[in-house]
Amino acid sequence: MSHPPLQPGWIDRPHLRMSLGDFPTEMGGFIRDAFLSYVIHGDLQSGRPVVLCPSAIASTHHRLDFLIGKGMALDPSHCTVIAVDALGNGLSVSPSNSQSQPRDQFPFISVRDMVNSQSQLLNLLGVDQVHAVVGASMGGMQALQWAVSEPQRVHHVVAMTPMARTTTWARLMNETSRRVLQAHPGWRDDDPQAWSAWVPLMQMINSRTPDHWDALYQEISDLLNDIDERVKTWQKQQYSVWDWLCQTHAYDAHDVGTTPGHNTTASALTSICAPTLILAPPLDLYNPAESAHWAAQHIQNCKFIEIPSRWGHQSASFADAESVFFLAQHIHAFLWKTSNPT
Can you tell me the mean pLDDT for 108-128? Predict the structure, then answer.
């Protein structure tokens, strides 16, 4: 996958790439000639606190651009932001771009592999300590995994719409999405039409709420036109079916409780010593909000904030302008110890 066309709100920064050599996966295999794609907002040589932003599923380093900028929660004049592309997203090493292990030859990866690759990236960049790991969706899942895997390195955690262990519901949604894609005869060749049914399932049903759609459309013809436009927009991103399969299988298998040294999800969460902020909307049809609540209850120093939004899983994104302002306020207050927003 080449870099997708810039979308409104995305911040254009130089795209960087770090070679990781032959990267070992926790299943015992290797990703040959592995590399990570990333961007830096700010100056890594400034000595300012470093904030790591992992990407969400089927997303890129632009995922948290809505929090980055002057006066925002992640202000490059106050901190250095490293926004990294997760393994398998089409910009970092993935089934779609691997020369050594293309498509179905690419090894199974896990969310912990994503975190371990990012840890290696920081080592190569000379970053010993991280002021915060901030992520949404699978980025939030990586943020929690960071706090479990490297408790002495991470000083703060912000996880939006996360799960500490992937629920059966989320696995069901991913499995349905895979079957929808693979039902198209051209999926193996990344025929853009393979996404025609995936888009309304994953971007509309899975990522919004019934209230959202009821408020937005009364006429079915208007909704159908919206679906068609969203399909065209997604197809322009040139995302690979193979990468979706890779990342969703990693998503399905995730559980911080299987981190070496832990035997339950609860014990792994209890081990987190970094102050943690978890945010989730009242209803999330992908990563159930109950999972975010449950994780927050098991982390010793954790604050849970409900996002007052009916955008569901997309409440932690550019999609909801009101949420953008809300999240920026609360995350800024948490990370930089300013007075709590009213």
Answer: 98
The residue among 332, 310, 306 whose CA lies nearest residue 320 is: 310
Separation between Cα atoms, residue 30 and residue 98, nearest integer Å: 12
277: helix, strand or coil:
strand
pLDDT, one tens digit per residue, over 161-218 is: 999 999 999 999 999 999 999 999 999 999 999 999 999 999 999 999 999 999 999 8
What are 128's two structure tokens? 């010993």
| Length of the chain (residues) | 342
Which neighbouring-strand residues pair with 54? 84
* Phi/psi at 287 (5° precision): -100, 100
Q: Are 150 and 119 in contact (CB under 8 A)?
A: yes
> Rounded distance, CA 49 to CA 129, Å?
8
Quote the CA–CA distance of 309 and 280 in Å, as a whole number: 9
Q: Taking the model in full, what pTM does it have?
A: 0.96
Q: What is the pLDDT confidence band of residue 340, given thresholds at 50, 70 and 90?
A: very low
Query: What would the pLDDT profile of 271-295 be if each residue is shown by its tens digit?
Result: 999 999 999 999 999 999 999 999 9
Q: What's the pLDDT score for residue 254?
A: 98
Rg (CA), the chain: 19
Is-contact 131 65, C-beta < 8 A?
no
pLDDT tens-place string over residues 43-61? 999 999 999 999 999 999 9
Q: Which of 187, 241, 234, 238 is nearest to 2 (CA)?
A: 238
What is the secondary structure of 86-117 as a DSSP string?
PTTSSSSS-TTT-SSS-GGGSPP--HHHHHHH
Q: Which CATH code for domain 16-170+244-336?
A: 3.40.50.1820
DSSP 116-158: HHHHHHHHHHT---BSEEEEETHHHHHHHHHHHH-TTTB--EE
Return the C-alpha torsion angle 149, 250, 297, 291, nearest 10: 170
- DSSP designation for 3: P
Beta strands in 218-329 (DSSP E): 276-280, 302-306
